[in-house]
Amino acid sequence: MPALWHDADPQQPRHRPREWAHENGGIESTHGHLKAAVRDALLLRGSRDFDDLAAYRRFIDEIVAAKNRRNAARIDAERATLQPLPDRRTSDYEEVIVTVTSTSSFTLRKVFYTVPSRLIGHRLRVRLYDDRLDLFIGGTHLMTLPRGRSRGNGAHGHVVDYHHVIHSLRRKPMALMKLVYRDQLFPREAYARTFERLIEALPERAACRMMVELLAMAHERACEAELADLLGADLAAGRLPDIAALRERFAPNPAALPDVVVQLAPLSTYDVLLMGEAA
Q1: Are strands 123-128 and 132-137 parallel, antiparallel or unpaired?
Q2: Which residues form the Transposase for insertion sequence element IS21-like C-terminal domain (predicted)?
Q3: Residue pair 146/95 in contact by the 8 Å Cβ criterion
Q4: Cβ atoms of 224 and 162 closer than 8 Å
Q5: pTM value?
Q6: Taking the chain, what is the end-to-end CA distance rounded to the nearest angstrom?
Q7: Nearest 5°: phi and psi at 62?
Q8: What is the dihedral of CA 167, 103, 121, 117, to 10 degrees?
Q9: pLDDT at position 146, please?
Q10: Does the structure show a pLDDT above 50 at 3?
Q11: So what's the pLDDT on residue 276?
Q12: N or C: which end of the chain has fewer CB within 10 A?
């Protein structure tokens, strides 16, 4: 009969017998200790919220560095016998094939992603990293998307860019009312607050049409930040956006357009070319 876990030498790595699938071996238990250290550090910190992914990674790096300092002597002893690293970096991504649907989107790992409408119907090769998705057609890199996560209750997550879906929304503005990812659609807080104000003040159809026009203006005129400032000023003043005034403000300046002069060659020139070819 094999020795029980508590009878084994705690300093030696242990194999896990198949009949003891609920037990952790000596190597696996290290991961459990790290998880416990992270959990304790979060409790001491008093919050699980971080400003961004980089801040969370710094937090984890500090915990790992503190644990490694306690093992510095053993790490230095092993470092002397380590082999050189491979010339090429190993793959740290998973590759998946997805098809872009008619809604200019695809779903991967219970997360809904939008892409430019020109990719509708294409099969994309996706390199799935921990923090991002790299999209390819064949060997050509198209774009990079931040990786989303499904929600804790099992609901789908969403990574949405209004630039990708604005053309579809212009055809069906009322779809804005029922979109499950509507909160992620607005690029800045001023847009979301403006839509709430429009819903309160106007019929749903008119509110949706105006909001879609505002998003389309931000997309087509590349004025997302400036338009957000104007919408914020309207909200502070308690007035609705003036679409006509905003269109005029962000319309192309005719004086800035280049004056292109096209000089047409006389038709007799072509006759000379044809005669030269005949000769």
Answers
A1: antiparallel
A2: 85-147
A3: no
A4: no
A5: 0.67
A6: 101
A7: -65, -40
A8: 20
A9: 93
A10: no
A11: 67
A12: N
Instruction: Give the span between the Cα atoms of 180 and 198, in whole angstroms.
Output: 19
| Alpha carbon separation from 211 to 162, 173, 200, 236 (Å, rounded) | 12, 8, 13, 18
In one-letter notation, the amino acid at residue 221 is: R
Rg (CA), the chain: 30
The structural domains of the chain, with segments of one domain joined by +, span 9-74, 94-159, 162-254
Cα separation of 115 and 117, whole Å?
6
- How far apart are the C-alpha atoms of 219 and 74, rounded to whole Å? 57
Q: Beta strand pairing status for 105-108 and 140-146?
A: unpaired
For the chain, what is the total number of helices (H) and then of strands (E)? 10, 7
Phi-psi region of 121 (alpha: psi -120 to 50; beta: other; left: phi over 0): left
Distance CA 235, CA 256 (A): 32
Q: Please report where in the chains the tokens 């779903």 appear, as a residue.
A: 107
Q: Specify the amino acid at residue 169.
A: L
Q: Assess contact for 106 and 113: CB atoms under 8 A.
A: yes
Residues 101-151: pLDDT tens digits? Answer: 988 999 999 999 999 989 999 999 999 998 899 999 988 999 999 999 887
